[in-house]
Amino acid sequence: MTEVIKMQEPRTSAQTSMAWPFEEARKILGRTGGKAPSKGYVLFETGYGPSGLPHIGTFGEVVRTTMVRHAFESLSDIPTKLYTVSDDMDGLRKVPDNVPNQEMIREYLGKPLTRIPDPFGTHESFGHHNNARLKAFLDTFGFDYEFISSSECYFSGRFDTSLLSVLAHYDEIISVILPTLGEERRATYSPFLPICAETGRVLQVPVVERNEKTGTIVYKREDGKLVETPVTGGHCKLQWKADWGMRWAAFQVDYEMSGKDLIDSVKLSSQICKILGQKPPEGFNYELFLDADGTKISKSKGNGLTIEEWLQYAPEESLSYFMYQSPRKAKRLYFDVIPRAVDEYLTFLEKFPDQTLDQQLNNPVWHVHNGKPPEEELPLSFGILLNLASVCNTEDKNILWGFISRYAPGASPESMPIVDHLVGYAITYYRDFVKPNKHYRTPTEEERKALEDLAQSLKNLPRDAEAIQTEIYEVGKRHKYTNLRDWFHALYQILLGQDEGPRMGSFIALYGIEETITLIMDALNKP
After folding, report:
1. What sign does the CA torsion over 438, 444, 447, 453 have?
2. Residue that finishes a domain, picked among 437, 460, 477
3. What pLDDT band is residue 53 in, cutting at 50, 70 and 90?
């Protein structure tokens, strides 16, 4: 009886949690009526277009879907699966900017990605290379998923029954799609794209005949020749909106999220899925990531952050946290968002053990760690460590640990491995982004007086972050700073050589009273 109560209590809280993964999970539960679908499981799906290298947005879709999946599993005992589907049957329309051997790739434009040589020379094809990159990364994060190659499904016959259904409902599907196209495109549109037997290219050509009994279509090539081909066995693929709807129907997908730019496509593909006799999946539209200039990130352009770049400067959990936060809000995804993401993640992690169950289910780290966040002792924020590296102007972890162990007696790389990792990330971030951009300014006459006052005041204080912070406020007030932000801004620019900085009380407690006084006096004595 006790075990039943323990199981029911989290479910009761999950049923009312306002965290967005639980809101999505309740939609899926309502769809099932609380019972397993006829296929025996609830199917989650994510899609990947491998025309460019896998990027951080791809990861974002998988991690967010995984969060919804775990929330669903907290509400129900119905089995679940996650398919990660690669649209590698697509014909390559342009050469990506961020791959080698571009001239070679240009010769294969129009061919399916799995029929184009790998420009990196490591895999069977360009599609296989990019698929491998995606799988390798997802595997390092421990995602539970089944990888599905669209090419494999087409060529193996897995899609054959659904493709014949598209042929049988050809007119209905056409009537849905044609109103969304321009006049010129409407004249030649067909949901089927034949694969040319002579060139291997994916063709966008008019279909002039179709035969349901033989499962074939007749299309007109650009040279005027009429060619008959089966729609099955990899001889044709579908236009992507029809392909999406067909795939939902073929797999009986229950949930798939997508970017806000695909809202109209989701509606169209949902109609096609219904025409094919299946219920379209539940969905969620997330906002797109932007690069440093506010432009949408793109696989082919390679703008914005890569997965590997984020992990150079921060732990993987901070990336998952960033993906969790405000998925319906457009966010810049560039190097300068990393420190804040790390510290916000660590703050939520520190709060978790002392929260009620309801609060924990709304805490982002519950979703980042699949309901089991680790308990970590975190005496310092990432921002503080970053500024310590900056002030010490060092890339030596031992020097930073000298300050840390003095601030937190007993602390060491062995006793606090998470802090040791953060020290390494802080040094790398400082070296690459802070150090090249440091610019110290000379204090004004009024600022000199305030800094002299601060140096004198610090001499009489204990090494206590709150006491130091309070005294910094008092010095600012004494020197007529009507907006104390201006006072702290001056401290950051004069003492740290940057526009933003840490909570000064905490930083000085870590760095040391005497060391900070020396820092102030050095700034005042600069010519």
Report:
1. positive
2. 437
3. low
